[in-house]
Automatic annotation (TrEMBL):
Comment on bound cofactor: Binds 1 Mg(2+) ion per subunit.
Similarity comment text for this entry: Belongs to the succinate/malate CoA ligase beta subunit family.
Residues engaged in binding substrate: N263, G320, I321, M322
Gene Ontology, cellular component aspect: cytosol; succinate-CoA ligase complex
Database matches in InterPro entries: ATP-grasp, ATP-grasp_succ-CoA_synth-type, ATP_grasp_subdomain_1, SUCC_ACL_C, Succ_CoA_ligase-like_bsu, Succinyl-CoA_synth-like
One of the GO BP terms on file: tricarboxylic acid cycle
Catalytic activity, reaction form: GTP + succinate + CoA = succinyl-CoA + GDP + phosphate; succinate + ATP + CoA = succinyl-CoA + ADP + phosphate
HAMAP family for the chain: Succ_CoA_beta (MF_00558)
The protein's name: Succinate--CoA ligase [ADP-forming] subunit beta
Pfam families: ATP-grasp_2, Ligase_CoA
Amino acid sequence: MNIHEYQAKELLRKYGVATPRGQVAADAAEAAAITESFGGQSVVKAQIHAGGRGKGGGVKFAKTPAEAAELFGRMMGMNLVTKQTGPEGRVVRTVFVSDPVDIARELYFSFLVDRATGRVTALASTEGGVEIEEVAAATPEKIVKVAVDPAIGLAEHHARELAFALGLSGDTFRKGVVFFRNLYKLFVEKDCSMLEINPLVVTKQGDVTALDAKIAFDDNALFRHPEVQAFRDLNEEAAAEIDASKFGLNFIKLDGSIGCMVNGAGLAMATMDIIQYHGSSPANFLDVGGGASEEAVKNAFRIILQDPGVKAVLVNIFGGIMRCDIVANGVVKAAREIGVQVPVVVRLEGTNVEEGKRILSESGLRIQVGADLDDAARKVVAAIA
Ligand code: ADP
Ligand code: MG
């Protein structure tokens, strides 16, 4: 789960990580009032779950309270297109007004979970304010990496190594060390999967502060963080994924043509691989899980069919706990209720498979049955060729 910049900054403050003052404005008058309280100037920032806002027109400097009010009016409700939103953009529903900072240097700092080492890893670079992927491609030597030992946490000498790599000195160095250690504490205690401060700014006064903050959380640990769950903004999530989560289903939108209904993440991966192998690509996959009800299967099928990218559907179920007759009934009911305009291929195996196949063949619906996974994948790809 991702959160907005202003929410991330609330967490930073709780952990003693320096960040400029700032407040969400409900309307233009409040944007002006907040700006007034900062001494008459502010930075007005659109809140969407995507970066690159500065270049896209979502971060603007206001020289007066009146200008902040005007910027609020322009930003609120606008469709903000950035490099990270894709061409369709995102509607701005929240506007944050921040205290302007006198920037001396823009740096980069993040924590992420490195799968190769299995450790939380800090990345630091003197090249802040630009996308780290660009730095990694052009000047990889400018990124310093430190893997953290989970038993020890971010050790003092590691924090110092990072501060040194960023060229901090004197009092600023000491502030950097405190900043990184507090940030690490937040990362671990809140079960983050990624925490990026870009830019991390050294001010003309010699302070270290987080001008921007992006945090992603491990969804599997959200249950123990109700305060983080409260930050969830459904407007920023794909409608179909929310719809699926209501029925305990996992839906993932992709950009190919074949909708996939499967049970189990491993089977989903195998299904997508074999579709690619036969020359097409998945439009999505929906994992109905282990013991889904007929109602859940029906909704799963509906959600897949409502995806405009879907040109054909492959249902691939290996019924262990899941019963094939329940899947067949769910598919048939969904098909009858909403109508199916695209070819559907089903591969069923396992518990009650004969009953499942009988239900499909007697349904009168044009559903092809695959003899095995390979045959089913071949048929579904051929159906849209
Ligand atoms: P994004 O990463 O989405 O473009 P940022 O929050 O990083 O948005 O802002 C983009 C740029 O705007 C920053 O690199 C910085 O130069 C400037 N900026 C943002 N907030 C402030 C602030 N409070 N004071 C001064 N400059 C700011
Ligand atoms: Mg940024």
